[in-house]
Structures are given as structure tokens and as C-alpha cells.
Amino acid sequence: MTSALYLEHYLDGLESLPSELQRNFKLMRDLDARAQNIMKTIDDKASEFMQILVKNKESLTEESRREKLKQIQDLFNKAKEYGDDKVQLAIQTYELVDKHIRRLDSDLARFEGEIQDKTLATRGKSEETVTKKGRKKSKDTKNLGKKKRSASSDDETHNNTTTGGQSTKNKKQKKNAEIEEGSQDGGHLTPHPSDVLDMPVDPNEPTYCLCHQVSYGEMIGCDNPECPIEWFHFACVGLTTKPKGKWFCPKCSQDRKKKSL
């Protein structure tokens, strides 16, 4: 699945989130307003009750006193219910947002896993292609050496047949001439192609992309001048051709969206 499909699916899931958040926040605001009104009523009734106790303590019966206290207690219970409902709504709102965050983390992990799998597959194909080319070149070199040795043997046989009586001295002179010719070439042998394949990779070569590998194949640069990675392989970011206009990597695109919110 490409990054565009991941983004499209995630945005579809976020479509209903703003309306749900707005509804929860509106309910919490209403509950808070009701609780504040009740607390104001409690203050008024408590002040009234204290004034009655101070001025008309003898005229206030026990039953009336208990009734007024019960009214105040009922108001406190009602305010507490509004507060509990507000806390529950806040918890639901947090879990709603957290659910989308967990889904985003899961999609990012899956997307990174797919990128790594594609990178490993691409590296495996590249190494297989290089190995096949090296084997073919080695085989061609061996066949060429056999042909040269065969031609040399044929020439030597022909010379021995025609001359028939070359002395040991002439053979030594020929051998010395070959040695001198080798010394003039610097005494170095031509390296075998398989030796070239076995040469170690330069550890100082820079790495790029999300896969942290060296440069190979087609690559695209991020148009964000502050991008920490800068260059990316086409396969790792789900591209087959170079897009028109400016292009930003997944991390820079996400950062730009966060800034625009």
C-alpha cells in the first residue's frame, strides 16, 4: 500500500472527529454552566439560612431547619452529578483522540515495514544482477585464456615439427625473452574479475533515504531545505516517475500539515 492510500484511509477515519469533539465540548460547557448556577444558588440559600439563625433563632423550628439544610444538600448533590458527567465526557473525548493517534502509529509502523521489505527486495535483485554479470565476465575471461593457450600450443607444435632441431640454447633464449618482457610490464598480473567482486564496500560512503542505504537507482530530493535526509529512493517513497512541481518527503509533509493546523 502506497503512502497516498495510507493517507486517504486515515483522512476518511478523521472525517467525523471534528463534529464529535465539538459536540462533547459543547456538552461539557453546558454542564459547567449548570453546575456554576447551582453553586450560586447554594451560596444564596446558605446566606439566607445563616441570617435566619442569627436573627430569628427562637422562631425557627427544628423541622424547618432540617428542611432548609436538606435543600442545600440536594443542590450540592445535583452539582456533583453535573461535575461527574463532565469528567466522563472529558475521558470519552481523550479516548476518542487517543484511538486515532494509536491508529496513526500503527499505520506508520506498517508503512515503514513495507518500505524496508521493498528496500531489501531491491538490494537482493541488484546484488543478484551484479553477481551474474561477474560470473559471466569471469567465464568469458577463462574461455579467452583457454583459446590463447590452445593457439600457443598449436604454434609451438608447428614450430617443433618444422624446425625439429632447435637446440636447448634457443629455448633458454626464448624463455629469457619472455621473462624480460614480463619485467618490462612492471611484473603485475591482471586481477581476476572474482577478486574485484570480493573487494569490501567503502564504509565512509554516505547513506540516504528512509532505509539508510547508499545511493542507487533513481532518487528524488525533498524540496524542504531543512530536511534532515534530503534524498530518497523512488521505491522507498512509492514513486515510479518524478512528480511535477515541488515534492516533500513523508516526514516533512506531516510537519507542514501540523504547522498549518
From TrEMBL:
The record marks 208, 219, 223, 231 as: Histone H3K4me3 binding. Residues 132-150 have a biased composition (Basic residues). Zn(2+) 2 binds at residues 222, 227, 249, 252. Zn(2+) 1 binds at residues 209, 211, 233, 236. Component of an histone acetyltransferase complex. Belongs to the ING family. This is Inhibitor of growth protein. It comes from Tabanus bromius.
